[in-house]
Q: What sequence folds into this?
């Protein structure tokens, strides 16, 4: 039977980083993944350019039942550390917006870099290999692999990611292993995911599919100002994906489709200055044309702006600055970028990622109940948690 110091399950962002660090410290490392290629989510991330970190990364950019858990790892392995690695490989990158760093070229450059680092660190990679069974054997672990081989290790690192995009091989494997060893799992749900409308709203807003605009999207006290997109199912775009991590079924969200503009004042001024203009034409100074038309029709503002009462203007302005509604659901794990919830951080050591009650068992990356905002934060968590475990195993 083969014996390794460390077996990492999952050749994603977190697993590869952990393998590199553990290998550099002279440990024998095997990374096992059931996919045919490593880092598939890195490959498709950021529209193929991988938003690999965010220079403004701070604990406040993460959701977790224990918001303090991520502090140690994020402090020890920072965006600067990852940027230094990327620079060492001469991978050109740029800040797109809000501190988000993307490759100028392809996300494949990041995967190639990680594979080279793994190679240099002596870590082995076995793809197309599922783990059928994990058992505790003495001080270590024994794994039955789908190849028929059994391997033993002193430390087992679970880096199998969350449930999002099952088509790409995402499974609930990590949560099952946690439960098997008595480690808690916080309820999971799709996050960074488009939200959907109920049928009637969908029919009404069908003409808007494809329209994008700048918006402030708010849930309770949490608000994001980024792009928003009408889709044929509901709403998407960065601001909606961000708020989806906070939204729960039955909750309202509020959208300002003309941030920083007082729609009521604009409409009233237009009624005085240009009374003969169609209300929808005036609304189109605040909103994209198609949205302006639908909102004007909805609020019964079909004629000239002069014909609109204060009450109608009030309704139009509210639709622009404070459109409030209840999404019916989300598009689910099929399109979600990440999984909220996961392995309970109360059961993990925040410095090493080791399960407190199960020596030698580690959880890193998205499988853990630490979920970042959109914008490179999730990869930074994967690097930082993988790095921290890599120092400890
Ligand atoms: C479309 C999309 C775009 C994204 N873009 C960005 C972005 O630009 N920036 C950002 O920060 N985040 C982005 N994310 C989120 C980011 O990809 C994840 O947070 C990150 O990949 C998590 O890393 P991980 O290593 O924990 O898990 P993963 O990268 O998901 O890796 C898990 C690995 O485990 C393997 N695995 C799963 N189950 C098993 C099993 N039973 N046996 C063996 N192997 C198994 C999988 O095949 C996979 O290779 C995006 C996500 C998606 C879906």
A:
């Amino acid at each position: 039977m083969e014996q390794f110091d460390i077996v990492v399950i999952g050749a994603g962002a977190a697993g590869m980083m952990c393998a590199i660090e553990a290998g550099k410290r002279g440990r024998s490392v095997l990374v096992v993944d059931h996919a045919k290629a490593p880092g598939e989510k890195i490959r498709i991330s950021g529209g193929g350019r991988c938003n690999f970190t965010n220079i403004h990364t701070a604990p406040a950019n993460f959701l977790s039942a224990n918001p303090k858990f991520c502090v140690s790892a994020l402090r020890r392995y920072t965006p600067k550390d990852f940027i230094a690695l990327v620079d060492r490989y001469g991978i050109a990158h740029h800040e797109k917006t809000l501190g988000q760093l993307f490759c100028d070229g392809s996300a494949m450059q990041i995967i190639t870099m990680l594979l080279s680092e793994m190679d240099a660190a002596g870590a082995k990679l076995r793809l197309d290999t599922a783990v059928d069974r994990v058992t505790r054997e003495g001080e270590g672990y024994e794994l039955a692999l789908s190849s028929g081989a059994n391997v033993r290790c002193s430390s087992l690192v679970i880096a199998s990611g969350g449930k999002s995009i099952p088509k790409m091989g995402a499974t609930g494997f990590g949560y099952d292993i946690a439960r098997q060893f008595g480690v808690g799992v916080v309820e999971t749900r799709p996050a960074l995911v488009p939200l959907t409308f109920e049928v009637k709203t969908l029919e009404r807003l069908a003409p808007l599919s494809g329209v994008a605009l700048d918006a402030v999207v708010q849930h309770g006290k949490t608000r994001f100002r980024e792009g928003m997109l009408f889709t044929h199912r509901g709403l998407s775009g960065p601001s909606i994906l961000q708020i989806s991590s906070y939204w729960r079924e039955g909750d309202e969200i509020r959208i300002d489709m003309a941030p920083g503009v007082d729609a009521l004042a604009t409409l009233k001024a237009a009624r005085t200055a240009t009374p003969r203009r169609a209300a929808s034409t005036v609304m189109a100074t605040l909103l994209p044309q198609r949205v302006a038309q639908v909102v004007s029709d909805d609020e019964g503002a079909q004629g000239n702006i002069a014909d609109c009462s204060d009450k109608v203007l009030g309704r139009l302005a509210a639709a622009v600055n404070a459109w409030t509604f209840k999404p019916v659901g989300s598009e689910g794990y099929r399109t979600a970028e990440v999984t909220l919830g996961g392995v309970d951080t109360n059961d993990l050591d925040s410095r090493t990622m080791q399960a407190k009650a199960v020596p030698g068992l580690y959880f890193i990356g998205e499988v853990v109940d630490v979920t970042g905002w959109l914008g490179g934060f999730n990869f930074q968590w994967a690097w930082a948690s993988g790095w921290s475990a890599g120092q400890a195993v």
Notes: The mean pLDDT is 97. The radius of gyration is 24 Å. The longest helix spans residues 377-392. Residues 16 and 114 are 7 Å apart (CA to CA).
